[in-house]
Specification:
Two copies of one chain form a homodimer. By secondary structure, the first copy, chain A, is α/β, with parallel strands linked by helices. Chain A has helices at about 15-20, 25-35, 40-55, 60-65, 85-100, 110-120, 140-145, 165-180, 195-210, 230-240, 250-260, 295-310, and strands at about 70-75, 100-105, 130, 150-155, 160-165, 185-190, 215-220, 245, 270-275, 290, 320-325, 325-330. The N and C termini of chain A lie far apart (about 90 Å). The structure holds a DNA duplex.
Chain lengths: ~350, ~350
DNA sequence: AATTTTTCTGCAACCGTTTGCCAAAAATTG
DNA sequence: CAATTTTTGGCAAACGGTTGCAGAAAAATT
């Protein structure tokens, strides 16, 4: 009975084995496989045949050594657990695979130090990196960007190419929506202070509130997790506001759960707007009104920018930045302001 | 003004640079950094100093070339989008980082061919792999396992070490729960036919149903996605059953959404049990009764088994398999069977 | 102080590819 | 058919580390 796979081979076949099997020099074998028309068709076929026979696969480490290219891209997220990143990862994964790259997923656990050290430890292992929600300081980020090709998502720092999801503009829409429902006192449920988008959202809210002549306050900061929603909900209730905009959906969903527990009616007593439209925002109870962000697209665009830069390093002069629009998706967590005395 | 980081270096420092800077031979530098007490303390410090100075980081490709070890583990999932895998990924990520390994995430898009070809293409790039929900045939899987260290999750194939989440046993509990609520006619909402756990769940349901003297039927197969829930819901409704157990929570949540749309009361008219207890199962509407699986733990255990095997290849004789128990988490999607004429 | 033992350090080969350079072979041309 | 151009294929040197071996230096022993 025949073995299923190249059994007998105790170790994987190398280029040398292929060359020997087809009676040519290693260099010829190398060219035949990677630079097909540098070699006569007959020879090439013979070599390809032998390679197939021996179940040969190039050793990418060895190739990386000479070429300096690993064809691997690191994707750094601050928390693999957060559904927001799922969509990013999906987007990058797709686009990277299409381009023949491999994705190295790294979780930085919301720590700037870990992020920095990981980038350094691994920098020889990838050709470029995508930083989704970097916790790095502007200074460090810029320094890093000057050392290696990278693209930041949701982070605008001079000198660093990025993909920006324009949630701040969306916030204005969200505020308009709330104001039109009669809300006059709106609270922003703040995310982590080290989060770059957090500030932008808050500032945008303040500006929009001024324009509409309503009050905007903030509570927090809260960790962007479902469990933090409980504290957030209590804080908002405490503030007496009739509506709130949460830093992200995860937090908003956590609030929803807590409010249900406390018997507070959403949106009857309190309206809630989330940000991002992550997995779950459509089926929570009540379904969440939120700023829909093209998250997956952001991942794809980030990859495109990065790969374009890798292919042609000269464009590094033109500081690439893409801005992706968001839009308000109205579901059932927002409604008319309650009548007060 | 001083540059922030090793500016001036156009290319990253190599071991040769470090050796030169500290006036020793390359080999000494190598030993000083990787095998500390093979070198006099004074020398070592001098070298470490130089390395720090030059911001030296070993090139892992080069190291991999001689050692044959990449210190990278591939984690293959059939769909990064599926929240079930999020938790797996979180578990593996954690455990791998703790052990100083890097995680290579690969999405096989539910395709056995892609899975197979990816494993082959990348096999020289990792030391081992974790296959979460492999779509491979037993034959292929076993062949692969004999070529390289790997651990399968939720897949029992002779010769392949694995971590098995014992959902089938849980199914019995779930059925008991439904029967005690008065249900006599139960439908299994089937997942993809190529999914290994799918069969086990169905078989377990059949057995349990026999024991309880109730009818078990099945509808499907359906894709394990939220969107497929609509068709699944309609099929179940059509069957006239009063309760169903869905292949997984994603499908169950999709059904919930569809049923709400159609004005069917859950659990009043139909009880639903999911499997896995993924992100979202607790906050959907109504919250889902489900078989809670220790998903993250499964990821961690898989890594432990894999690393143990890497450290000591001799244990490959003892075919390691871990079984993780599940338990029924009763929430609000199940209730008493409706009274029928 | 001479000798033995131990600890360091350097030389050089190797890991598996790629690639510049040159010679041999084939194809083209007059 | 000889001369010339174009292909093709081989040699050997990188790429950046690791490691067995052996000589040198330092420490310990006599």
């Amino acid at each position: 009975m025949e073995p299923l796979v190249d059994a007998g081979q105790d170790r994987p076949a190398t280029l040398a084995d292929v060359a020997a099997a087809s009676g040519v020099a290693i260099s010829t074998a190398s060219r035949a496989l990677s630079n097909p028309n540098r070699v006569r068709a007959a020879t090439r076929e013979k070599i390809e045949e032998a390679a197939r026979e021996l179940n040969y696969v190039v050793n990418s480490q060895a190739r990386a050594l000479t070429s300096g290219k690993t064809r691997t891209i690191a994707v750094m997220v601050s928390d693999v657990t957060n559904p927001f990143y799922f969509d990013i990862i999906r987007g990058t994964q797709q686009q990277l695979k299409a381009a023949g790259y491999t994705q190295l997923l790294v979780d930085t656990e919301e720590s700037d130090e870990l992020e920095d050290s990981m980038m350094h430890k691994l920098r020889r292992s990838f050709d470029g990196a995508i930083l989704a929600a970097s916790r790095l300081t502007d200074r460090n980020l810029a320094a890093l960007a000057s050392e290696m090709p990278l693209v930041a998502i949701n982070r605008q720092t001079s000198g660093v190419p990025s993909v920006f999801i324009d949630t701040p503009s969306g916030i204005e829409q969200a505020l308009g929506h709330l104001v039109s429902l009669g809300h006059r006192d709106i609270v922003y449920v703040s995310g982590p202070e080290t989060s770059w988008p957090n500030e932008g959202r808050w500032r945008s809210l303040v500006r929009a509130a001024e324009r509409h002549g309503v009050t905007a306050r903030r509570v927090g900061p809260f960790s962007p997790k479902k469990v933090a929603g409980a504290a957030a909900a209590d804080a908002v209730l405490n503030s007496g506001a009739t509506a709130c905009i949460a830093f992200n959906d995860l937090l908003a969903i956590g609030m929803l759960m807590r409010l249900r527990e406390r018997g507070v009616n959403v949106p009857g007593d309190l309206s809630i707007v989330g940000c991002d439209d992550i997995f779950g925002a459509d089926f929570c109870n009540p379904p969440l009104t939120t700023l829909t962000a093209p998250i997956e697209q952001a991942g794809r665009v980030a990859v495109s920018i990065l790969l374009a830069r890798l292919d042609d390093p000269t464009i590094s002069g033109a500081r690439q930045t893409a801005t992706l629009p968001t839009h308000l998706t109205v579901r059932s967590s927002t409604g008319p302001a309650p009548i007060r005395k």
